[in-house]
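Practice problem: predict the structure.
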Amino acid sequence: MRAPPLRRQPAGRELAGFTLLELLAAITIAGMLLAAAVPASVRFYQSIQYRQAVREVITVLASARYAAVNSGRAQDVAINPGTNRISFREQVTQLPEKLNVVVHSAREINRRDEGVIRFYPEGGSSGGDIELERPDADGIRVSVDWLDGRVTHARYALD
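Answer:
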């Protein structure tokens, strides 16, 4: 029995493929792209967490104001800067650990280790500010107006 003859490529036609040098160049470029993308994605994720924390604080405060007006009873929002927790009724919101939380509120209604902002049935509040600072030295101040209980926020930069 004879072995079949080897087939040869027609003249001018070469096998398609990549050389080792081309593969190394592609892997190097992909590695450089990943090296640049990973730190940027971490910063992006932290930025998303920060913005979400600001939205949650604003939402909790607005919910407490709404509940006070609708129920006809004062509602308290407690902010614990040591644990980065904000609580209203049974709802406890955990803010990211990397945030520095500072509370300015009426001393008369504060609790041990917690600042309290109270909303009254007529729409007013005890007033106060909650500052959420990022490690990179900028922050958001969420303010509650004592007269009408309105919740606003403004960005600030630390010097």
